[in-house]
Automatic annotation (TrEMBL):
Segments traversing the membrane: none
Binding-site positions, Zn(2+) 2: C505, C508, C523, C526
EC number: 5.6.2.4
Name of the encoding gene: priA
Quaternary data: Component of the replication restart primosome.
GO terms for MF: 3'-5' DNA helicase activity; ATP binding; ATP hydrolysis activity; DNA binding; zinc ion binding
GO cellular component: primosome complex
Cofactor list: Zn(2+)
Family as reported in the entry's similarity comment: Belongs to the helicase family. PriA subfamily.
Gene3D superfamilies linked: P-loop containing nucleotide triphosphate hydrolases, PriA, 3(prime) DNA-binding domain
Pfam families per the UniProt record, alphabetical: Helicase_C (PF00271), PriA_3primeBD (PF17764), PriA_C (PF18074), ResIII (PF04851), Zn_ribbon_PriA (PF18319)
Protein name: Replication restart protein PriA
InterPro entries: Helicase/UvrB_N (IPR006935), Helicase_ATP-bd (IPR014001), Helicase_C-like (IPR001650), P-loop_NTPase (IPR027417), PriA (IPR005259), PriA_3primeBD (IPR041222), PriA_3primeBD_sf (IPR042115), PriA_C (IPR041236)
Functional description taken from the UniProt entry: Initiates the restart of stalled replication forks, which reloads the replicative helicase on sites other than the origin of replication. Recognizes and binds to abandoned replication forks and remodels them to uncover a helicase loading site. Promotes assembly of the primosome at these replication forks.
Amino acid sequence: MQTNRPFEYLIPETLTDVVVPGMRVEVPFGRGRRKIQGFVMRVKETSDFQGKLKPIARVIDLKPVLSDEMLKLSYWLADRTYSFQISCLQTMLPSVMRAKYKQYVVAIDEVDPEVVRLFNGKPTFEITGQLDDETIKLINRLRRNNKIDIQYVVENQALQVKRQAVTTDLNVIQLHEAKSKLRANAKSQIKLLEYLADHLDELPIEFSDLQKEFGVSRAAIKTAEKNDLVRVVEVTKLRKPVGITPEQTTKMKLTEEQQAAVDQINSAIETENPQTFLVEGVTGSGKTEVYLQTIEKALQQEKTALMLVPEISLTPQMVNRVVGRFGDQVAVLHSGLSNGERYDEWTRIENRDVKVVVGARSAVFAPLEHIGLIIIDEEHEGSYKQDDNPRYHARDVALWRAQVNKCPVVLGSATPSLESRARAEKGVYQLIRMKKRINNKNLPQVKIVDMRDSENSAVKGDFSPVLRENLQETLDQHNQAIILLNRRGYSSFMMCRECGFVLKCPNCDVSLTYHKDLGKMKCHYCGHDEPVPQFCPNCKSKKIGFYGTGTQNIEQQLNDLFPQARVLRMDVDTTRRKGAHAKILKQFGDHKADILLGTQMIAKGLDFPDVTLVGVINADTTLSLADFRASERTFQLLTQVSGRAGRAEKTGHVVIQTFNPDHYAIKDASTQDYETFFKQEMYIRHQSNYTPYYFTALISVANQDEGKTLKQSYWLKKQLQTALSKDAILLGPSPTMISRKQNKYYYQIIVKYKHEPKLHQRLLEILNETQADAKNGFTIAIDNEPQHID
Ligand SMILES: Nc1ncnc2c1ncn2[C@@H]1O[C@H](COP(=O)(O)OP(=O)(O)OP(=O)(O)O)[C@@H](O)[C@H]1O
Ligand SMILES: [Zn+2]
């Protein structure tokens, strides 16, 4: 049975007028007594169904949770992303809406006799268990007449949560003393005491953080407690989003370029013109102020505004500025929120308590009404595309919503995606260029350091003489530096010098990475970890050692080279704790550190006036990816990170170390010359038949059995072949770059095409036909316009 379609149910007489589109209901499904949750898509007077319709069992919501706009969007989204409509509908709601929550009825009109009767004199009542149909009807009539309101409160997500935490009464000296008395193999306890000594002013610290971040076990905490070294306490946390410190900024007098941008966008807001603007503004050209003043315009027009950012925790400054300007009218949706917090924000939007929503990818489904403006900052970011079903791109959804709401979309970036820039070239988007920095200074001076040169390769470590000198100078002048290395961990991998053996993950086809703080080898794909081997597991030689460089290693080198410098490291390993990103960036912003070292998470959006130097340890990490976007990603990363230097009064310098100094992506990034890069890269995409010249669809198959995976892939290829003309390019099946992940084999087929009228239908058929395969352990995914092919 095909399940990717709506099913018809009878509305029992008692629920007439109660059941409306956008509500969730419980219905019997299939044979037996199984009941499932469904969404009401449409209410009809008659049915063509042959046979006896089953009745709806009960309504879950008393008012619709999805608007007509969202219901319409779900049809389009399912079709566009080749996914089930039900998963699209679920994606639009905060995840807790899929779980249990309580409903409350609130009296608005406390004089109406019916309300008085219903409430029995109380201002609210909680709906527990099942209400009788008469009451449901009454509630609905009253709600329609605005005499009462209904609110949801999520169960198990009380406003205050209690958690176990650790604190200590000992001081630093006592802690170190206690540590020295422990047996050497009490590693977990030692780590615990070390941590406490280093973070005395931050106590108590929660169990979960100790476990996640430092691998300190519950048992170690308990032992330490028994020995009176620590105390276990309960902390009460208020559910309040962390990491936002509004930055009050007053409206600035715009530069000429900013004014021109604002004028064009505001005029589209006023005339309700669903036009798309591509704001291509160099780093530090003041795009934020353009966003803020256009949002203001939307609000003046009695409309709302939606603003997407790549990942909130990484761009706290942007969020702080929006909240600083518009205050309580803003809701923030970010991935760091707990389910409950997310739900709170969602409810504020639903209740129309807010007018501006800032959030990452999924915020594009925010239940805002009368949207007057949609902004996508750093529009080139890959994180706007979801990796799982439904594989949607937030930009596409934004453009769809803009049509429905009759409002403009602003795509902003210093390094637009090739797709967007090409659309601007064709006149589909309106191009607005901002070529000058706010401070009217030149873009920072960039030096490319050729790491193949003997003077660079001869030095021990990863810092060329040029980068060292520049760092020294920056420190001498009490300025700040940002150092980028796109690889976490201490050293990349372990290899045996005797037999060439590389230590790999048992579940995935990748090498394990050394993590110094854990003292373990770790898989970045599945999280598997194991002890560091003392000798080669293959040939038993002791000549097994580390290769490559990670952030932890560079941190060590910085400490050795510049012992007086204060270094902050920012990578996934130092930012596991909630609010950790914001904390590190605040410390850096307050100039409590001299050097910020990190992976690509430090590359974008940061605006610190004292940063005068940016150093890139190795520009080649993204370039060597086997992906058609490798050059584009490299150019974007280097341009963005370079743009962090010299944004205010002080002049900026950039040093890029590379083994490919002649590569156009690196050269163009060093001059921050987007337009030249764009032309060159378009030429290459044209030569190799890639987007934006061709559309792309990627079909991947995974199974634990490699033979079965291949067989299924060939069957799929045949299905595709019969729907394609000879102009289409069909590639594969071929193994993905990491052909085994978590014990599953991955194969992929790529279709590149220009105009294939039958392809869409065929892909939808494949989606439905392969449903049964899921039960046999196959994972089959169709990715429309993939972000990366690997
Ligand atoms: N009209 C203005 N007058 C004075 N200062 C301004 C003006 N507009 C922006 N600025 C300041 O200029 C700096 C850079 O602006 P902003 O951070 O918006 O740049 P951006 O274009 O977003 O750059 P990036 O792409 O690198 O993030 C900020 O510190 C901002 O406060
Ligand atoms: Zn693994």
